[in-house]
Amino acid sequence: MPNTTAPHATNLRRGRFSEFGRTCLITTATHERRPIFRNFRAGRLLVNEMRLSEQNNLVESLAWVIMPDHLHWLLVLRDGSLANLLKRIKARSTQAINRELHWRGQLWQRGYHDRAMRRNDDLQAMARYIVANPLRAGISSRLADYPLWDAVWL
Known about the structure:
Blueprint: E1 23-29, H1 40-55, E2 59-67, E3 70-77, H2 82-101, E4 113-116, H3 123-131, H4 133-136, E5 149-151
Antiparallel strand pairs: 1-3, 1-4, 2-3, 2-5
Helix pairs in contact: 1-2
């Protein structure tokens, strides 16, 4: 398999650490940006894994939206590291989706983008921006019609 990672992409994570209680915005994409989550059942299986991580007190979900080929997730890290959380979510969702939908192979791109939120960031405005992604992408004309999103404030 060819290496599609930018030559210095690993340098971006050098010196970073996971801070408990820190609010982060995570974005991660499907392998080759395939629109896997156009399949509603695949999306619900991913939601199940995200909720399981919340039930296990690894994370507090503030807002998320699952787009056809990527996930945006505003969260508060409660235990472990972001890297381990995303590794777990990706592995478990891949297993569940492949098993239930009789698919095979890699579902997620390696890595993810994270942004630590600052104290003065407006989290509710960020949540509104996140969940409005299907509207901006033209996938849905009304948020109420798009099934793969949630936010604690909305």
